């Protein structure tokens, strides 16, 4: 395939399942139908927060539902202090 | 060991403090002795740049303990090296250490903690390294509980643990790496070179999941925040297990039960109700019974 702009040779690259044609001469990029949308989706996923860490079957409901960050922020007093700092 | 000035019961014989201070001065410590920790049958006295620890009466002393100290000495940058071999005081083990700063409770170094444990787990295993201290604590604390509603829940959760954990015997497959064996935030100190592990009485060959089990149990119970747990896991790095909780589940259950039992016992001794976090640990035991 030749570049529609400068008639240079187009080379095909595959990145994360998306095919991209790039011109060896002018570096122009040609996207097939739907590939721009695929790239946009990938970008959105890339910027999305990482999934919450998993928890065991006996985990607290708040840990499983994971309402929002810091929902069960530890208050480092009394019981919690001893749980974290002593045997 | 050294956690805060509040870790005192005041039942200790002043003679013990004086004798530990004398050992500290022999190792180069100067100034007045300062009691860093006096609880659960453990006494820790600081004399200037030296810290002397009197171990619990029922803990191992002699060659077995000496081998664990040797293993710590062979872990520069990971574990604090002792100042000389262990001593004995009325049959109890006494160990001597350089002083280093404990973790500040308001700024727990979770990522560094994960990194330090990962470094330990990657360390070469000395040929004569003993097996780790075994999970005998959970059986001991549950065994001491008086009858009651919460203690009933804890005992039933304990009964559901695998036999080898309940008996504190060798597990079917104990792993092949060096583990701390009793890790929590009080087991780290900051030396000039960085964070180091202390309290190596359980250090030995075992399953590394046991070193992650306490924060795992607290996270699962909803006591430890997601931020802290994620920072700890990030510091630890990629786990060799595809399903992390498959590896952590049993040790984390055992620790959740052990922590719940310790909380209930402390509340009884202090004649007070359980706080929210302590109640969350008992609730976790109730879910362990059903899971």
Automatic annotation (TrEMBL), chain A:
Residues 2-39 form the Transcription factor zinc-finger domain. Residues 43-78 are annotated as: Disordered. It comes from the Bacteria. InterPro entries: TF_Znf (IPR027392). Residues 63-76 have a biased composition (Basic residues). Pfam families: Zn_ribbon_TFIIB. This is Transcription factor zinc-finger domain-containing protein. It comes from Actinomadura rubteroloni. The lineage of its organism: Bacteria, Bacillati, Actinomycetota, Actinomycetes, Streptosporangiales.
Automatic annotation (TrEMBL), chain B:
It comes from the Bacteria. It holds the Pfam family APH. Residues 110-247 form the Aminoglycoside phosphotransferase domain. This is Phosphotransferase. The keyword Magnesium does not apply. Keywords: Transferase. Signal peptide: none annotated. GO terms for molecular function: transferase activity. Transmembrane segments: none annotated.
């Amino acid at each position: 395939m030749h570049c529609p702009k400068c008639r240079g040779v187009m080379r095909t690259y595959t990145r994360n399942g998306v095919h991209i044609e790039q011109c060896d001469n002018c570096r122009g990029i040609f996207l097939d139908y739907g590939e721009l949308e695929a790239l946009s989706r990938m970008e959105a996923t890339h910027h999305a927060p990482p999934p919450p860490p998993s928890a065991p079957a006996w985990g607290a409901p708040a840990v499983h539902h994971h309402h929002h960050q810091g929902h069960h922020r530890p208050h480092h007093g009394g019981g919690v202090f001893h749980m974290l700092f002593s045997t | 060991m050294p956690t805060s000035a509040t870790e005192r019961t005041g039942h200790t014989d002043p003679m013990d403090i004086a004798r530990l201070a004398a050992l500290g001065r022999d190792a180069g410590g100067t100034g007045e002795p300062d009691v860093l920790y006096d609880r659960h049958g453990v006494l820790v006295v600081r004399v200037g740049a030296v810290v002397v620890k009197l171990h619990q009466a029922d803990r191992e002393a002699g060659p077995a303990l000496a081998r664990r100290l040797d293993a710590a000495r062979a872990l520069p940058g990971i574990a604090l090296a002792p100042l000389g071999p262990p001593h004995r005081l009325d049959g109890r083990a006494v160990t001597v250490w350089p002083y280093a700063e404990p973790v500040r409770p308001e700024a727990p170094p979770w990522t560094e903690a994960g990194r330090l444990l990962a470094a330990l787990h990657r360390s070469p295993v000395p040929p004569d390294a003993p097996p780790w201290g075994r999970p005998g604590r959970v059986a001991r604390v549950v065994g001491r509980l008086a009858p009651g509603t919460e203690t009933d829940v804890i005992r039933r959760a304990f009964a559901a643990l695998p036999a080898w954990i309940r008996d504190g015997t060798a597990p079917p497959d104990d792993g092949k790496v060096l583990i701390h064996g009793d890790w929590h935030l009080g087991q780290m100190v900051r030396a000039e070179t960085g964070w180091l592990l202390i309290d190596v009485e359980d250090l030995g060959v075992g399953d590394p999941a046991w070193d992650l089990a306490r924060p795992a149990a607290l996270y699962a119970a909803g006591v430890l925040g997601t931020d802290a747990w994620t920072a700890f896991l990030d510091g630890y790095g990629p786990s060799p297990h595809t399903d992390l909780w498959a590896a952590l589940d049993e040790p984390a259950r055992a620790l959740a039960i052990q922590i719940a039992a310790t909380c209930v016992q402390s509340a009884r001794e202090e004649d007070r109700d359980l706080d929210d976090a302590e109640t969350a640990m008992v609730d976790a035991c109730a879910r362990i019974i059903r899971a």
